Amino acid sequence: MAKYRVRLRAKSRRTNRERPPVLTGMRTTGKLHLGHFVGALENWREVQNSGEYNCYFLLADLQALTTHAQNPELLLESIRDVVLDWIGVGLNPELRNVHFVLQSQVLERAMLSQLLTMIARYGEVMRNPTLKSELKEQKDATVGFMVYPVDQVADILMVSPYPPKQGDFILVPVGEDQVPHLEYTNVLARRFNQRYGKVFALCRPLIGRVGRLVGLNNPKEKASKSRGNVIYLSDDPKTVEEKAMGMYTDPTRIHSTDPGHVENNPLFDYLFAFHRDRAKVEEFARFYRQGKIGDVPLKKELAREINVLLDPIRERRAQAQKEADIRAILEAGSQAARKTCRPILEAVKEKMYLQYPK
Ligand code: TRP
């Protein structure tokens, strides 16, 4: 198999059983963008490269189906794209402690999810903020969509260290928007443990550096892939430059000699997120407020910085596109998750009396 030239900072001698599990995931609804990078992927790479964790990176194709059942064929292509993007940023499924898991292929997880629905209360699921806000936008929400918070709890708890020892935990590196899901995971884990006996460890969030990257053209919306105002990790240098040049900045500023606003200005949000030299961005901000620097040089600067970040990502991605056996990667990762989940599911079934009568 191909080598993706990922450098390991520390090689831990631990075996996978001794490493605390990491579980995190992304919906497979399209190519990944810069918001995914600063919100989550940076941290994923960090925990992977520390060598200290057993990492399950989940491609949430079932969760994608909760909102995309009308055109499921798009999902198949998205799975490829997400795998390539992940390898691009430096995640490496060839490492012994890294598993790319295809959610729909882990049958044990699905049953764990169903059993968790028995202790999840309707009212508390409906209070989940992500669910609530998306229900407002969506006219034809499905039952599958409404149980997705429970399903996500199953994603996380399926890799719970079993049997759990004092101090065991599941580390979940995610963007800030996922925190309610993690809190709910611990609500259900505690409830199960109290009612039936201890099976689950609790999870801990690890939150990304930038909580919410705004869209290029609309500071009020988060960088969402559905609205076409994002820079994809796979965009070529020219596209990055064009998108940067077209960014929304300060609408109150007509001439570059007018004093400008830095707050709520996507150009500065991006500069602060992606420029390697923070002191320089602070200097730009001072000049901008004084009307001493225009949008155009700053946009050029931003495009340059983003391209420096994306160059190695594009290169690794292109290499993986030629060489990686995506199917084999996903099969191996999904089998690893099944193996981990099996004893947990068995314990849950036993505690819930789902057995042949004696
Ligand atoms: N809900 C996450 C998203 O929208 C994806 C996801 C699915 C996830 N299962 C997960 C994240 C488990 C963390 C843990 O991107």
| List of distinct ligands in this structure | tryptophan
Low-pLDDT runs of 5+ residues are 1-10
Radius of gyration: 22 Å
User: N-to-C SSE series?
Assistant: EHEHHEHHHHHEHEHHHHH
The overall pLDDT, averaged over residues, is 92
Estimate what percentage of residues fall within beta strands.
5-15%
N/C terminus separation: 49 Å
Query: What's the count of strands?
Result: 5
Spatial sequence of strands, sheet with the most strands: 1-2-3
Based on secondary structure, the structural category is mainly alpha
- DSSP summary: helix tally: 14
Helicity range? 40-55%
Shape: elongated
* Largest sheet properties: 3 strands, parallel
Can you offer a commentary on this structure?
The structure is a single chain. With 358 residues, this protein is mostly helical. It is 51% helix and 9% strand. The chain is built from 14 helices and five strands. The chain has a three-stranded parallel sheet with strand order 1-2-3. Strands 4-5 form a two-stranded parallel ribbon. It starts with 20 loop residues before the first strand and ends in a 7-residue tail after the last helix. 41% of the residues are buried. Residues 1-10 have low confidence and may be disordered. Bound molecules: tryptophan. Tryptophan (TRP) binds next to strand 1, strand 2, helix 8 and strand 4. Tryptophan (TRP) is lined by residues 23-27, 58, 60, 63, 152, 155-156, 172, 174, 178.
